[in-house]
Design goal:
By secondary structure, the protein is an alpha+beta fold. It has two domains: about 55 residues; about 180 residues, no CATH class. Helices cover about 30% and strands about 35% of the residues. It contains six helices and ten strands; from the N terminus they run αβββαβαββαβαβββα. The chain has a five-stranded mixed barrel with strand order 3-4-7-10-8.
Length: about 240
């Protein structure tokens, strides 16, 4: 029995590592809805500032444009306000950064030829394919700082996976808090580099076509297998069963 539990633990360990490495990679087969052909929609508005509380901190949100986006998630990062820069900035409002593509970038290039990655507030991408790089449009990819205090929307955003097709609505906005933190927003898809990200105060968010969650489920199952096999092994040692 002890050897069986050890074997189960090792199998689950290997499975969890493989699943962790695969979880945030694009699915082998991607589907593309007609919504991905559309450019983001924005309209300049005169909207009163919005004051919201999140994580015990008050934020002042200043909308500038009504905004809607349909995109394919190629990379993302869910933020933890208790660590790194978000802790320094006292920023609990930024739920996640989503790096998405649409149009030509969603359906006209081989996305599997690219490596996409999100940092705390950036999206980077690279490829060794000269053909796909030439076809890739820099105005059809965006990194979006998603901010909201709505618990249901925050949960839906946190459930995102690479390969999901998403629809979001809200306001391009700048926001600040009393600690002195301030973040602006881009209002064009033509810019690049520092300050080129869209900051969106999200009022609606949906995963319209979810990517397969098989690797994510395997990772969770494998972790449970490791915990249970280790627990039974310790119990067996303590009880003198083996």
């Amino acid at each position: 029995m002890a050897r069986l539990l050890q074997l189960i633990f090792l199998i689950c360990l290997v499975a969890s590592i493989v699943a962790w490495l695969k979880t945030d990679t694009l699915p082998n087969v991607l589907s593309f809805s007609s919504a991905l052909a559309a450019e983001p929609r924005q309209v300049e508005i005169k909207q009163p500032p919005i004051d919201v509380d999140q994580g015990g901190v008050s934020y002042h949100v200043e909308p500038s444009h009504k905004y809607a986006l349909d995109g394919l998630v190629v990379s993302y990062r869910v933020h933890d306000a208790d660590h790194l820069l978000h802790r320094i900035w006292n920023d609990h409002l930024n739920v996640a950064d989503l790096c998405v593509v649409w149009g030509q970038d969603a359906s006209g290039v081989d996305l599997h030829a690219f490596d996409f990655a999100n940092g705390e507030f950036t999206c980077t991408f690279r490829t060794h394919s000269e053909k796909d790089w030439r076809a890739f449009r820099l105005d059809q990819i965006s990194n979006n700082h998603l901010i909201t205090a709505d618990p249901a929307i925050r949960q839906r955003i946190a459930d995102v996976a690479v390969g999901d097709q998403v629809h979001l609505e809200g306001y391009l906005s700048s926001y600040s808090n009393a600690s002195g933190f301030h973040r602006g927003t881009s209002t064009t898809r033509q810019d690049t580099g520092n300050g080129a990200c869209e900051t969106v105060y999200v009022t609606a968010f949906d995963i319209t076509d979810p990517a397969p969650r098989g690797w994510r489920r395997l990772e969770s199952t494998a972790l449970w297998g490791m915990l249970l096999s280790a627990a039974f092994w310790l119990l067996g040692v303590g009880k003198g069963w083996f």
